[in-house]
Structures are given as C-alpha cells and as structure tokens.
Amino acid sequence: MCGIVGYIGSRDAYPILIKGLKRLEYRGYDSAGVALISERSAHLNVYKVKGKVSGLEAYGEREDLSGTIGIAHTRWATHGEPCQVNAHPHLSASGNLALVHNGIIENYNVLKEKLQKKGYLFKSDTDTEVLVQLIDYMKESGKLDLLTAVRLALKEVVGAYALAVIDQTYPDEIIVARKSSPLVIGIGEHEFFIGSDASPIIEYTDQVVYPEDGEIAILSKGKPLKVVDLSNVALDPEVQTLELNLGQIEKGGYPHFMLKEIFEQPECIQDCMRGRLHVEENEVILSAIIDHKDKLMNAKRFIIIACGTSWHAGLIGRQLIEHYCRIPVQVEYASEFRYSHTVVGEGDVVIAISQSGETADTLAAIELAKEKGAFVYGICNAIGSSISRATHTGSYIHVGPEIGVASTKAFTGQVTVLAMLALTLAKVKGTIADETLQEILQELQVLPEKMKKALETNEKIASLSRIFTYAHNFIYLGRGYNYPVALEGALKLKEISYIHAEGYPAAEMKHGPIALIDMEMPVVVVATHNSLYEKLLSNVQAVKARQGRIIAIVSEGDEVISEIADYCIELPRTVEALDPLLTTIPLQLMAYHIAVWKGKNVDQPRNLAKSVTVE
Fold first, then answer.
1. What is the mean pLDDT of residues 483-494?
2. Catalytic residue (one of 2, 268, 272, 325)
3. What is the pLDDT of residues 218-234, one digit of tens each?
4. How many angstroms separate the CA atoms of 603 and 586, rounded?
5. Which one is catalytic: 22, 139, 179, 610?
6. Over the stretch 581-594, which tens digit does the pLDDT of each residue have?
C-alpha cells in the first residue's frame, strides 16, 4: 500500500514521476503528490491533491514542473483521512525538506510530543509528517548534512518504512531508506530511479538494487550508488537484472487489468510449471525440495500462514498435503499467528504464502516462526521481495506482475505451486501410488488448455451477471477442495462489487445460513462431479426447496444439478484435487462482470490496496 517514485539525473523528472505513479496507483489511490527542486528557481516545489494521479496531473498543468530531481507518492490512507493536507510529500518546518513514506511509524506520537516541545507545529494527522520534522530537527539543530540527519532520525524510529527525502540545500541528492517495506533502486546511465516495485523503472533500466532492512542509499548526480547502514558503515549493494518487460504491466487491449489477468491464467500456469513438471519421468522437480529434502521430509507438521486470497490457497494446500503426503497441516491467518500463542518450533515447517512478498503480517509471522526454530518455506510472486529474502527457501509462482487489486492469477499460481509441492513430497515419501501421480501430472499438463475452455464461458457469464446487479447479498457453497473456492468467490465479489457475500462449506448451510435463503437470495454452488457430488446434491435441493436462486458451476455433461439450478456454467472435467484451478475462473469472471455492470472501478476498489505493507 502506497507507492513511492523518485528520479535524479539529467532528464525532466516530472514526466517520469507521473508515469511511475500511474503504474503504482494499484498500491493506493486516496491522494497523490510530487516534490521537485526547480531548475528555474532552485526552490523546492510540492504539489499534491486528494484523489487519483490524474487529478495531480491536471493540477500540475499550471505549476512550475521544471527539475531533474524529484520524488512522488500515491497514498493509501493509514494515519489521517484522505485529503490534500495528509497527502505526501510532506514538507519540513524549515521548508528545505520533502519526504515520501510507505509504512507505519509506531512511536510517532512519542516523537511528535517531543518535537512539539521543541516548537514544531504539525499540519497533518500523519506519522510521515512526524518523520520529516524529526529529520529536519536533527539537521537544523545539529548543523548536520542530510545523510547524517536521516541516520540519526531513523535510529529513533520504531516501525516500518520505505522513504525518500530531498533537500533544496542539497539539490543533487536523494536519500532513500528501507525497513520492512518494499523499495527498489534502478541504476541507469548517470541517473537513478526509485520505486516501491519495479514497474516505474523497467522502461528505463533493467539494473536494480533492493536495499535490505536498515540500509540507507545515497543517490547523487554523476556519482556511483552509495549504500550505508544506520551506523554509516559502507556496504556493497548487489545489483540484479530485472526479469520483467513493459508489456507485462500494460493492459494489452483489455478494458481492465483484472480481466487481462483472468485471461492470462492459462499461460501463467504454464509458466509456473515450466521446467518443474516432468510427465514422462513421472515427477515434479522443485529445487527448494532438492536443496532442503531432509527438513521437509522430516517435518512433523506443516503450518501455512497467509492473508486474504493467499489464505484461501493455503486451505487448498492443506488438503493436498494431508491427502497425498499424510502430514498434518494447519492453516493460520498470518495476522493472528503472531498473537494466538500457536505452539511452533523445531521440526515444524512453516509455509508462508504472499502474492506481493511484502505482506506485513506475513513477514512478522515469518520472523516469529524463525525465532522459534521452525523452517520457513516461502511461496510468492515477486522476485527479490522481502518474503523471498526472509524465508529459508521457497518457490516463486512465476505468473508475472498482477496489477488488479483483486487477486486472480496469483491465486491459481499459488494453488499450482502447492499442488507441485505436495506431489513432490509425496513421491519422495512414497505416500502416493505411481499411477495416481501419473494421472495428476498428465492433468496438470493439459490444464492450461482446459482453463482456456473455462474462459470461453466469459460471454455467458457477462450476460448472466447483469441479472444479479440488484443483489445485496450472495451465498457461495462448496465442499472438499471447492470449499476454499467458495470462500474465494465470495471475497472477489465483495472486493470489487461491494455486494456482501459469504462462502460456506455446503453442509454447514443447515446450521444457520439456510435461514437467509429466499427467492431474492442468489446462491452460487460449486458442484463439479467429484467424490462429494451426491452429498452436495442434497444441499442444492435444500436451497431450491426454499426458493433460492441457484447458479451452479458443474462439470460438462451434468444432468442432475443442471436440471435443478436456475443457471449453469459447465466446465471441463479434471481430477478432483485440481478442481479449484478451473472452478475459480467462472467465479472471478462473475465478480468482474457484476462490478462492471454496477459501474465500479474493478482495478482500484475503494478502501483496498494491492500490497498490504502495514499491520
């Protein structure tokens, strides 16, 4: 949440900053702002607005936008309501400093009281303004250079931060720092770029540095990158090459990123399995399992930690691992794991799942698990992310950047990796028959083509969805592997259409939710032909008996539930364990089209941000 962009070099900074903000707007869109050191006056100019980056762009048309050094920010509000005053960048009392920040300064109230006693006045409700005033105080009271002032200020800070600060008395320098919040530095020809992720950088350079926690980088015109720690000890940063291209973060002719990402899933799953799936040899090869075979083989249990959509993937992962590996698995919300007194220690393997690799609650849970002696396996999408660096080992899902706030292809990528993880371990442990393994691997191989067939339901779902824009509530039902799919379908609908929706195991409906069923209640039933089909049939009949309007996701050729349901979406058949990779697609499409019919902003739903980097 919140996006940071920065530039220093010989080009005009403003166009680079605005373009970068637009690419990061999925991280926050409550307000936006930019700070530039003017080429004309050498003055620090700050412009900011409530609302989206387009509003900032319109506002700036009448301002001095000159300058080859600048920082910018798009906000997802944490401290203080979305408004111009609370928008970043924040100015220091001296007027010399401007700062943008992502994260949470936990002790900001204590610092604020100290600064108020020193005579500092505050205009905003943000923790970020406290930080810029603290740096200003250090610099002005001690007659210090900017780097030293930043170092000393950060030593007093408790919390998480990614920040960039400029000083009109140091017009050829940007200071950036990071702790538990994402930040990347792009290195060009005599120029530097800053981003919360690589999307604002990729069209200018593929050479990047990911600062580690507690590191400060000094970006100076005409000088090499310099990195130090909080004690001013020089460090040697690792320069990495980006594996990302510009086309991956453009809409490619689709009206929304979410729809594009839904339709990318067949290719994404193919990429996820590439080099790992070996059907002819009847095996899956995951390098993390090869490198840490003993730890994983001897695990007394697995604990999956995740949030939101990733948690739903974890619920499917639990069934896969328990079924095929015969190892007990529990699934925990990362946000609760830290505080629930879960017993964890040596012999446990913690699987941490996060699309962004920056989820604050999941990162904190990882650190706790490591402190207790657990072995931590990460599953994430973003190469070089904090979680990929914090875990002992792991697997990338390789589905490419996901821009739409409501996760789609990351979910199916996570489920695919969890399936491959379970099958790999099961073969090594000898808990899966060769013929069963062969059947599943063959299905995985053809699954991208079956996903394409599932996507052919798009037009039918678009038409069907228009009927249900009236609804204020939805119920989603599923059993077995499809119960987490029901949860995920409900989450997608409420995220982007703002319709209240709940997912349930279908058998639990009679323990309360059935009281809600009437002719106005749409009920989505994930009812593919599997081992629980007959059980689910009775649940469908119970809904129909109470006049519920049933939308059924069924297997091709279904002749029973399709006769009972009001509307049916048919999908290709697959093995039961892989059902979620197909059944989730029509639920994604239905959520998308209902939101579009209702006129909602599906890529940037209200109150949500893509990467939740605060607790």
1. 97
2. 2
3. 999 989 999 999 999 99
4. 18
5. 610
6. 999 999 999 999 99
The helix or strand, by DSSP H or E, that contains position 58, with its residue range, turns out to be helix 53-60
d(CA 557, CA 572): 9
pLDDT of residue 573: 96
| Joined tokens for residue 497 | 């259409």
The H-or-E segment that residue 581 falls in is: helix 579-597
Q: Which among 516, 432, 437, 427 has a CA at the least distance from the CA of 477?
A: 516
DSSP letters, 301-362, are EEEEEE-HHHHHHHHHHHHHHHHHH---EEEEEHHHHTTTT----TTEEEEEEESSS--HHH
Cα Rg, the chain, nearest whole Å: 26
Distance CA 25, CA 604 (A): 8
Alpha helices in 68-187 (DSSP H): 108-117, 127-142, 146-154
Please state the pTM of the whole predicted model. 0.78
Match 């700062």 to its residue by tokens.
99
d(CA 612, CA 601): 19
**Is residue 141 a contact partner of residue 175, using CB atoms and an 8 Å limit?**
no
Burial of 212 (0-12, 13-18, 19+ CB in 10 A): middle
pLDDT band at 148 (very low <50, low <70, confident <90, very high): very high
Place of tokens 């105080």: 137
> Under the phi-then-psi rule, with left for phi > 0, alpha for psi from -120 to 50, and beta for the rest, what region is 590?
alpha
Q: Provide the mean pLDDT of the chain.
A: 92
Q: Would the pLDDT of 28 be above 80?
A: no
CA–CA separation, 90 vs 100, rounded Å?
A: 7
- What proportion of the chain, given as a percentage, has pLDDT over 90? 71
What span, in angstroms and rounded, lies between the C-alpha atoms of 135 and 152? Answer: 8
How do residues 265-302 score in pLDDT, each as one tens digit?
999 999 999 999 999 999 999 988 888 988 998 899 99
The yes-or-no verdict on residue 482 having pLDDT over 70 is: yes
> Is the N-terminal amide bond of 89 cis, ω within 30° of 0?
yes
Establish whether 307 is a catalytic residue.
Answer: no
Per the DSSP assignment, residues forming a β-bridge with 194 are 6, 185
Tokens 């990302």 belong to which residue? 244
CB-count exposure of residue 543 (10 Å: 0-12, 13-18, 19+) = buried
52 flagged as catalytic: no
Say if CB 8 and CB 192 are below 8 A apart: yes
- 391-396 CB contacts, 8 Å cutoff, 24+ apart: 391/352, 391/366, 392/292, 392/295, 393/288, 393/291, 393/292, 394/288, 394/352, 395/286, 395/288, 395/420, 395/421
How many degrees, rounded to 5, is the angle at CA 444 between CA 438 and CA 448? 155
Question: What dihedral angle (degrees, nearest 10) is formed by the CA atoms of 395, 398, 400, 401?
Answer: -10
Parallel, antiparallel or unpaired: strands 184-187 and 207-209: antiparallel
